[in-house]
Amino acid sequence: MAAVLDAVLCGHDIVPIKGDSVSNAAAIGIALSVLPERVVQRYWWFTHILDSPHTRSSTGVVSGYWPDLLASTKTGRRVNEWLSTPGVIRARFDRQSEVIAWLVGQGRSGSGRVDRYRSSATESEFVSAIAARELTVREQDIDDLLRRGDSILTEPQAQSALTVWVGSNAVRAMTFAVSSDTDTGVANAIVDALLGVHERARTGSNPVYFPPASEPVYGWHTILARYLCELYPDKPAMLAFVQEQLLASGRPLDTEDAMAKVPDRWWSSIGLQRSDFGVPVQTIVYEIRTQGTVSASLEDAVYFAADRLTTVLAIVEEFRHHLPVAAAAVVIELAGEHMYPVTLAIVQNNARYGHHLTAQWADSLIQKLPGHEEIVVALWEELAADRTPVHQTLLVRVLRAHERRTGVEFAMKTLLAVAAKELETRATAPVRHERPQESYTDSIMGTPWSNEAVNRLRPTAKVQDDFEDDTTWSRAYAVVWPIVYILIGSTFASILLLGFDRLG
Fold this sequence. Notes:
By secondary structure, this protein is mainly α. Helix content is about 60%, strand content about 5%. It has helices at about 1-10, 20-35, 35-40, 70, 75-85, 95-110, 125-135, 140-150, 155-170, 170-180, 185-200, 220-230, 235-245, 255-260, 265-270, 280-290, 295-305, 310-320, 325-335, 340-350, 360-370, 375-385, 390-405, 410-430, 450-455, 470-504; strands at about 15, 45-50, 60-65. The protein has a 3-stranded parallel β-sheet, covered by helices on one side. It is rod-shaped and about 140 Å long.
């Protein structure tokens, strides 16, 4: 059967069939069912031709040899000799043997798939169409098929060759995939082949340019995300793909540092967000360092963490150097109700790297976190413990913070407000300390002493007067401690009055 189809497709004018009458008839039946109609019409078809033509004709002949019983006759010998005469042979077509094997299978199965090609005008067109659409596509055919946008690339027989081709021509394949001229089905076939390359890629490589790698061709990440959403329409399936193909060891996102560089819009484009992968501490640190803020998805990840305090403390630890004011403010806000311990952790972290707490740093931080009295108190206590000189503005904030605290008596609130106001006034107004005119009188005779005599009685070592000390602590001392004494006295008086009342 294959020999008959091969000879007809090569254009032989005489095509012999070797077999008995039954097999010859079967072969002719298959040939008539699979060959193009125009090719069939150029031949006469016989199971056994009765006699050889006396002259050659433009119409070819397909016939079986005479059977052995009759081959010894004069006519039988003449016919068989004529069938064995070499005819006119045309060159074979590319992949013709593979096409013939496919045609034989189609003829025996009777699937009718070949019918779509039987209208071909020539043998060449017939063979080429079948080779392109029914046979396994070869690697050398891919480039031409892509340029033509041939839908054969979406067929299973093309996948093996396409995968091999894109493995060596990844960027060129991506160029075809993002082209507006490329059919969506073909573009998806390209992306699928590239994903096959990714699965077999060596450790540490990223041949498909998953983020954070830059797009080799503009629009590639969009095409990639679109295909992944079609391939994994539900979130659990997409998460499984990301875990296995992107986050696993040796994959492009196997470190938090790599995860930190993936933009949120990429996760959104595939229906995910960072919080789906737990709390990426290094990603948060990376965003604070580079952007001075934290994205909404990462804030949610911290907010919904099983242990929010431990998570934020891990963020502080991950900085591995001191936190400047802006970064500290962002981290403290992430802590939520745990601002107090996180603030102290930041102070301790900075001290570990040689950046001890200063009043200026504390005041700058408080300005970035208005309304958080617990932060004010925490920093005040830390500075007081280290006996660090505190600027008046910070002292004012401390007094205001205590004033606004709940559970403070009205009298105490009033005193705190007065103290804060007085200290604030002193901090902003210029201060001049002038020594009053000294006058000394003899306690016995009432005779004024001269200044010269008084000076001789002074000790030789200079004793600094409190009023000569223009430091912050002396100012604060002068304002705050009288208030403390008043509060202690009023409390004591209240206790005595209460006692007398009970005795009465």
